[in-house]
Amino acid sequence: MPRPRRKGKERFHLLEPEYERPAFEVPETTRETLMDRLVFLYGESKSKECLKEVERLMRVYWAHKSEPMMSWERDFDPAERFTEEDVILITYGDLVHHHTLSPLDTMAYLAKTFLKGTVNTLHILPFFPYSSDRGFAVTDFEQVDPRLGSWEDIEELKGDFRLMFDGVVNHVSSKSRWFSEFRNDHPRYRDFFTVFSTKNALSPEHLAIITRPRPTPVLSEFSTLRGHRWVWTTFSKDQIDLNFKNPEVLLEVLRILLVYVYRGADILRLDAVTYLWSELGTKCVHLAQTHAIIQILRAVLAAVAPVAALITETNVPHAENISYFGNGENEAHMVYNFALPPLVLHAFQTQDATRLTQWAASLSPVSPQATYFNFLDSHDGIGVTPVLDILTPGEINLMALRVLEHGGFISYRREGDGSETPYELNITWFSAVNSEDADEPADIQVKRYLASRSIALVLMGVPGVYLHGLLGSRNDAEAVIHEKETRSINRKVIDADQLMAAMGDESSMTNRISRPYGRMIHKRTLHTAFHPNGPQRVLSLDRRIFALTRTSSDGNEKILAIANVSAETVPLNLDREKTGMDANGFYDLLYKKTYEAPGGSFILTCEPYGVYWLLAQG
Amino acid sequence: MDTVRGPEKGKGVTVISAPRRLDAQQAGSFRAELRELADRGVFRIVADLSQTETIDSSGLGALVSRIAIIRENGGDMRLAGCNEFVTGLLNITHLDQVFTCYPTVEEAMKSFGHPPDPD
């Protein structure tokens, strides 16, 4: 029986607040949590005023909730926030260009035409006005970039899809009003940023231990009404870090995130959240204060917007990455499973899934309310930091060199000793697993690609795919040279007419990739064994095979999912001991083939790069 | 020091000359040459770019087309005679972190030091 999901009026907020009905009463437990976290951040005296303002913001948000929404939420089960139906498409708002339609209209048309039944959630990367970094240097958090469309266009998309918005709240553009007012010495904005009067305020000892995601200087110089100042810039001179030590910054960010929720965000992506709080003398990442801020955001959402979810973007070693789940119930609802892309890539490069299997076997359910976001590609590259504690430096280096051989590039970051080490691999996923000058049929490349993608679809969690990944796009190396940015390799703007022609042409690679990939995604959405938190057991069958079993929460559906990461045919002698499945037969969901398995035993001959989703029967 | 210019497995350093324009038209033959060297087990290579005026994305792709297998086998490819344009391109694409570019072929060859022991 299908579970109820929000599909109608319950999904939409009121754009004007309704103050005729009683104001929201903040639950005492929420108030206690908020006060505790605020005191930790700001001390007793400041926190009382701060809490009052947080409560006011919650009441303002609450007034934007419609009656159908509140009625539906009374029966909301947090364990069903994400289900097997959830698949997230990551895209820029203007990644597809049409000569007459606006970018968001184009996206809406294509999404409705091609994505229904496969993807149900759109992550439109920052769609706000910006000055650099393809949207991640926001100048105005509350406007839709007029080059893309309007809030009405976002609402239109909301009619058919769940939406994920970026909260780019670690920093703002140097061209933003907030920073302009800081430079103008406006009293409200004096403490909005982390400011020094000299760059020597950071000693070499301090600098040496600060974790840097970029080789650029952490302090950038700006002229202001009060003279020259050096401000904290984790990512670039155009991206000015916000100073969360100032409670007003936290309140302003909270206000904006709640605006996003009533504007349609089902999921809030906390961009670069690792760097939210800095303390000299520390690495300036993952600080307890950063976790406290996330806990505040979570507590607010839990009280007033319990269906909305937080996802943290923390491109860091796996153990640190999953720390953003908190205790499983008080921080992120989802974390990007950053170790997955490099480990899947490593498996296909080496035709050996041993490392991937070992790591996947270590994943455990977080809580009924939290899960992993399983992606292989995004607008950024394939981060290698997340596998620093999983692969050896030699393995990472070789993986990076193989990416170069496939036409990709390597981005570096500066270490404390001044050396530069690989940070991410810039390449499209298709080019990462397939070599352009390989002497092999296109069919093999398609199979290899689909086998790699299948792994993210079967693993415990919610799968995501970047638009270029859905289409099997190749590298755009010309753009790298033209734009002087290695990340441009997988950000090519696609012509809508050409895309539709390619989708309709059975001989095109776009068609040959996207059709079977779409069918695979659709199959996933139909089976409760693929519920994000359905139990998972990773199997060690053969070094060339990645295999696991998934079971629905009621235990009624069991699927054995297998992918051959090698170009070799691999015969598998399977039995109950190896699979842990009490079945007398299996039905392949992808190829509609039945395997007899008397007593649970059968032989599966895995073709090169073969994928098998075997539903247990009997 | 043995500085053999011709390809010989396991010994010396092999010099491969890039064309004046290492672009989509020329990159294929350069890539094929590199592939042939690697297939023959030649992994100590200097790419002579002293005559190369310009490189495009295809040319860059050719330059790195065998870098993993070369390094995996204990070898290296080093560049010589990069002009300002090529140096800028390597910088933009971060390939300056992968390749060392020497002023001359001779210096690039010398940088390899002694040849490895025979197989």
Q: Which strands sit side by side, in order, in the main sheet of chain A?
A: 1-3-4-10-11-12-13-17
Mean pLDDT over all positions of chain B: 89
Q: Could you name the CATH homologous superfamily of the domain at 536-617 in chain A?
A: Golgi alpha-mannosidase II
Tell me, briefly, the overall form of chain B: globular
Ends apart, CA distance between termini of chain A? 21 Å
Multimeric state of these chains?
Answer: heterodimer
Strand content of the residues of chain B, in percent? 15-25%
Secondary structural class of chain A: alpha/beta
CATH topology of chain B: Transcription Regulator spoIIAA
Return the structural class of chain B. Answer: alpha/beta
Determine the number of helices of chain A (DSSP H or I, runs of at least 4 residues).
20
Helix content of chain B: 25-40%
The domain tally of chain B reads 1
Terminal-residue CA separation of chain B: 18 Å
Q: Largest chain interface and its two residue counts?
A: A-B, 20 and 22 residues
Outline of chain A = globular
Structure description:
The complex is a heterodimer of chains A (618) and B (119). Chain A is globular and about 75 Å long. In chain A, 34% of the residues lie in helices and 19% in strands. Chain A contains 20 helices and 26 strands. In chain A, strand 11, helix 10 and strand 12 form a beta-alpha-beta unit. Chain A is α/β, with parallel strands linked by helices. Among the domains of chain A are: 65 residues, Alpha-Beta Complex (Oligo-1,6-glucosidase, domain 2); 82 residues, Golgi alpha-mannosidase II (Immunoglobulin-like), CATH 2.60.40. Chain B has 119 residues and is an alpha/beta fold. Chain B has one domain: STAS domain (Transcription Regulator spoIIAA, 2-Layer Sandwich). Chain B has a 4-stranded parallel beta sheet with strand order 1-3-5-6. A two-stranded parallel ribbon of chain B has the order 2-4. At the A-B interface, helix 13, strand 15 and helix 17 of A face helix 2 and helix 3 of B.
